[in-house]
Amino acid sequence: MNKRHKQTFIQGTLILLAAGVINRILGFIPRIALPRIIGAEGVGIYQLGYPFFLVIMTLITGGIPLAVSKLVSEAEIANNPQASRRILRISLGLTFALGIIFMLLSIWFAPWVTQNILTDPRVYHTFVSMSPMLVIVAVSSVFRGYFQGKQNMIPSAVSSIVETLVRMVCVLSFSFLLLPKGIEFGAAGAMLGVMAGEFIGLIILLFHYHAEDKDVTHSNDVTDELPIHLKVGVLRRLLKITIPVTAGKLVGSFSYLFESIITAQSLAIAGLATSVATAQYGALQGMVIPLLLLPGALTTSLAVSLVPSLSEAAARNEQATIHRRLNQTINLALVTGAPFSVIMFVLSVPLCLLLYNNQNIAGMLQLMAPFALFVYIQGPLQVALQVLDRPGKALRNTLIGAAIKLFLIWYLSSQPQYGIYGAVIAIIVNSIIVTLMHGFSVTRLLSFRFKLLNILKVCVAMILMAAGTHLAYTQLPFHQHTWLQFLISCIIGMVIYMIIIFRIKLVSIRDLEKLPIIGQWFPSS
Prior knowledge:
mainly alpha, about 525 residues, globular
C-alpha cells in the first residue's frame, strides 16, 4: 500500500484543523459584510432557501462520504488499492446521476416550492441559483470521502481553503452587483458566489486525484470493465452503510427545513410582519449560530479524522484504541471549545457590535453560548456510532431531539413574550438532549466511561475565566475604543484559562510533546 501521503490520526486532525480555522476566519468575512450589503432581511431570504437545499443534498449524498471513507479505509488496510478505486467509481456514478436528476427537479418545481412551502416568494431566485450546486457538491463529497479513507487529509484541506477564498470574493461581489435589481437578486447573487466556490473546490480535488493517479502502478489499474456481480456487491455494501446514515442526516436536514418554516409561521402568529420575521430568522441562522459554531472547526476535523481511525481500529478489534481515540476527541473538544463559549457569553454585546454593528442580537448569542459545548462534542459522538455500525441509534436520538425542537419552536415562538427566543430555547434543548443520548448510546455500546472529572475541571476553568474576563472588560480604561477593550479582555481571559488548565492538569507538557512540530519545542526529559 502506498503510504506516502498517509497521515496519523493527530496529523490528519491538525491538517483539517488548520484548514478549518482558516476557513472559519475567511468564511466569517462575508458573514460580517453580507448583512451590511443586503441587510438582515436579505440574509433571511438567503437562509430561507438554504434548508431546502440541505434536504435535497442529504438525499443525494447523505452517508456517501462516510461510507466511501470507511470502505476505502478497510480496502487500504487489506492492501487492496483496486478495491478503493472500484468504490470510488461506483460512488461517483451513483451520486452524479442523482445530482443531475434532483437538479432538474429543483429547477422545474422551484416556482411551486417557493410559493407554497416557503413563506417568502422572493426566495425563488436564490432557490434556482443553488440548484446546479447539487451536482458539484455530490461529486466533491465522494472525492473527499475517498481521500479521507486513505487518511490523506491534504486534498480536502487545500480544496476547502481555496473554495472559501473564491466564495468570499464571489459572494460579496455578486450580491453587490445584483443588489440594484432588488434585495431578492442580491440574495441570489450570494448563492451564486457559493456555487462558484464549490466549483473551484471540486477542480482542486480533481487535480489532486489526477496527481495521485500518476503515482499508481499499472498493476493497480482498474480501468477494465467490472463484472456485474462485483458492481452489485460494492453497491450493496455502500448502501448498507449509506442508507441508515442518510436517514439520520435527513432527520437533521428536514428538522432544519421545518424549523425555518415553523419559525416564520409562529412569528407571524405572534404578530410579526413577514419582513420582520424574515429578518429575525436571518439574524439567528445567518449571524448568531455561525458565530456559535466558529470554534467547531476542531470538532469537525476530529469527526472527519475519526472515521478512518475508528474503522481501522474496529477492523482490528482494538477496543483500547477506540476508547483512547474517543477520550482524545472529547477532551480536545471540551478544552478548546470552552474559552470561546466563555467569550461569547461574557462579551456578547461588544462581539456582536464589532462584527455585525448590531448589538440587538447579543441576547440570543449570550443565551446559547453556555450550551455550545454540547454542540461541540455531539458531532464526534454521532460519527462514532455511525462508524461502529450503530447508525440506527444515532438516527433514533436525532429524531427524538428534532421532534422536541420543532414542538418547542411551535409552542414558544408563537407566543409574543418569547418570539424568536422560543426558537433559541428549542435549539438549546435539542442540542442537550441529542448529545446526552449519543453519549449514553456510546457508553452502552463500548462500555465506555466518560472522564467526568475532566468535565468538572473544564467547568471550573470556564467559571474562573468568565469572572476574570468580565472584571477586565468592566475595569479597563478603554471605553472609547470598544475593539481594544474587547481584545485586551479576551487576551486576559485566555491567559487565565491557560494557566488554570495547566494547573489542574487538564493539559500537560506531555500532551504538547505528542503534537507534530509543536512537540519539538518541548523535548522529553
